[in-house]
Design a protein that fits this description.
Layout: H1 15-31, H2 35-43, H3 50-66, H4 70-89, H5 96-100, H6 105-112, H7 117-141, H8 144-148, H9 152-168, H10 179-198, H11 202-210, H12 217-228, H13 235-253, H14 261-274, H15 279-291, H16 295-308, H17 315-329, H18 333-346, H19 351-362, H20 367-371, H21 377-383, H22 397-406, H23 420-427, H24 431-434, H25 438-457, H26 464-481, H27 485-497, H28 508-522, H29 526-538, H30 546-566
Helix pairs in contact: 1-2, 1-3, 2-3, 3-4, 3-7, 4-7, 6-9, 7-9, 7-10, 9-10, 10-12, 10-13, 12-13, 13-14, 14-15, 15-16, 15-17, 16-17, 17-18, 18-19, 19-21, 19-22, 25-26, 26-27, 26-28, 27-28, 28-29, 28-30, 29-30
Family: Belongs to the TTC39 family.
Keywords: TPR repeat
Organism: Tetraodon nigroviridis (Spotted green pufferfish)
Length: 568
């Protein structure tokens, strides 16, 4: 067996080097919006080159992930990943002995140390295939437990990355011509696993650590950061993961919805300079402006993104989704309806969610305004339960939430929802966006006050407490962002006081405890914050969007305990 990195030095232009160069050229086409040309460029060698097969599969997976097309694409697009795996498993690229033995550190460390350069690249490519399939599973139901249910496949991927990281740092490892690409692949996997596992709730994390998994957020971010700077095939993927983390994962699943916008801008800038019309980078430029609360700048970026290319029309849907929210934050409900309507007609991710949002926006308009749309909120709400779909036997969490909320419209004389678009806005952590601008927050508070007057003017029903608690939670959030902390705390406490009278919207109580806890952290009342957050975590289960709430509670607890340990 050869020492790693030595074999490729026998020829300055090995097949591996040529394949990597060709895949880099294909990736360049992709980033220039030449999506079809990129796919054709890669496809003709997917049967005989592991890097062509992997890059082709990666691009298809990325398109599925970034366009909400998971139901239709996941099944058919798993095939290229499986084919890439198969190439890695052939005798030519991957020793059978590596697969025939259990993945234990003692065996694999010794085995890995005597793999040729090409075989090492096959190891990292194989692990990457498994990682992609696991990531798609997580995106479908937002539950990292599902990510781990890949069982031995995910464990093999994790263990392989761990062992390859050991190889990289071994004195016996000899760097060859393609070392940068190999190192980038290892940093991508090690970084991604550490980052994803670190976000899990403590109880789950302890269970995973028992079976061999571990995750360190700072180490994961460091690995991805280093991988993004190398100028290799994986640099773009490391960059994309970091951008997604800072602008989506930490925003939606973090305690306060605060990603590191400054880091995201630094990551994006060089790509935006090199690819000024690259739709992916224009999209993230819009997302960064949106998170900063610069809604007009965000809208302009999303519209520019849609105009930049017409080959990958599905990517427009990502922009439509964000445009819908930008206009929601501005309380331009007619424009928000327009984009929800486009999504309901053109995108298959969740028809139930899109139709629910259409109904939600119409419910905020006058009866005369609704006439111009040719639809009524009640009719649309009644359609939502019939649009339920399942992916791998599971419904999307957002879809389940929309269906539960719509059920009150199935009776003959339904009791209207209090402020449905503003409620869904909370589910997607939108109050963090408007909270950065006083005028947006005051405007939203005004809309909530109008909803309160409407609720007060209606006869009391068995759903009145549910609606009142929702408005209390949302008003508390607005008041917190406006600096009225005592009033905000009053409204969060009101939800808890009415806990036993809530009929259906039980998710409001743990979320009110979460928001109250975050307010206490801001005020330096750390012990009280931890008590509230632990109550939210331990005392409630089987409520709407539970997984998402638990992610946020975990992040908040980490923040509270970190500040207490630091004495700040």
């Amino acid at each position: 067996s050869a020492v790693p990195g030595v074999e490729e030095e026998k020829c300055s232009r090995s097949d591996l080097s040529l394949a990597l160069e060709d895949c880099m050229a294909a990736l360049d086409l992709f980033l220039q919006n030449e999506f079809e040309e990129c796919a054709v460029h890669l496809f003709y060698r997917t049967k005989d080159s592991m890097y062509h097969a992997l890059t082709y599969a990666t691009i298809l997976e990325m398109q599925a992930m970034m366009t909400f097309e998971l139901p239709t694409h996941t099944g058919c697009r798993n095939q290229p990943v499986k084919e890439a795996q198969a190439i890695c498993q052939t005798v030519r690229h991957r020793r059978k002995s590596t697969f025939s033995k259990n993945f234990t550190e003692d065996v694999c460390d010794s085995e890995m140390m005597f793999l040729t350069s090409e075989e090492l690249h096959a190891e990292v490519c194989y692990a990457e295939c498994l990682l992609q399939r696991a990531a798609l599973t997580f995106l479908q139901d937002e539950n990292l437990i599902s990510f781990m249910r890949g069982g031995i496949k995910v464990r093999n991927s994790y263990q392989t990355y761990k062992e390859l990281h050991t190889v990289l740092n071994s004195s016996a490892y000899s760097q060859g011509h393609n070392h940068g690409h190999f190192e980038g692949g290892v940093k991508l996997g090690v970084g991604a696993f550490n980052l994803m596992i670190s976000m899990l709730p403590t109880r789950t994390l302890k269970l995973l650590e028992f079976v061999g998994f571990s995750g360190n957020k700072d180490f994961g971010l460091q690995q991805l950061q280093e991988g993004s700077k190398e100028g290799t095939l994986r640099s773009f993927l490391c960059n994309m993961l970091l951008l997604c983390y800072h602008t989506f994962m930490s925003f939606i699943l973090g305690s306060t919805g605060e990603g590191d916008v400054e880091d995201a801008e630094k990551l994006l800038q060089p790509y935006l300079q090199k690819y000024p019309k690259g739709s992916i980078f224009l999209f993230f430029a819009g997302r960064i402006e949106e998170i900063k609360g610069n809604l007009d700048a965000a809208i302009a970026r999303y519209q520019e993104c849609c105009e930049a290319q017409q080959q990958w029309k599905e990517f427009h849907h990502m922009c439509y989704w964000e445009l819908m929210w930008c206009f929601t934050y501005k309380r331009h409900f007619k424009m928000a309806y327009f984009y929800a309507d486009l999504l309901s007609k053109e995108n298959s991710w969740s028809k139930a969610t899109y139709v629910y949002m259409k109904a939600a926006y119409l419910s905020m308009l006058t009866a005369d305004d609704c006439l111009t749309f040719g639809e009524t909120a009640c009719t649309l709400f009644r359609q939502v339960p019939g649009l339920k779909q399942k992916i791998a036997g599971k419904s999307l969490p957002t879809e389940k939430f929309a269906i539960r909320k719509s059920r009150r419209y199935l009776v003959e004389n339904p009791i209207p929802l209090a402020a449905p678009p503003l409620e869904m806005m909370y589910i997607w952590n939108g109050y963090t966006v408007i909270g950065k601008h006083k005028d947006l927050t005051e405007g939203m508070l005004k809309t909530l006050d109008e909803a309160q007057k409407k609720l007060d003017s209606c006869p009391r029903t068995d759903l009145s407490i549910d609606d009142q608690c929702l408005l209390s939670l949302l008003k508390g959030l607005c008041l917190k962002h406006l600096g009225h902390q005592e009033e905000a705390e009053h409204y969060f406490t009101l939800v808890l006081c009415n806990e036993t009278q809530i009929k259906y919207d039980h998710y409001l109580v743990p979320n009110a405890l979460l928001e109250h806890g975050l307010l206490c952290i801001e005020q330096g009342r750390r012990d009280e914050a931890i008590k509230l957050l632990e109550a939210a975590k331990q005392n409630y289960k089987n409520y709407s969007m539970e997984s998402r709430t638990h992610f946020r509670i975990q992040a908040a607890l980490h923040k509270a305990r970190g500040r207490r340990e630091n004495g700040t």
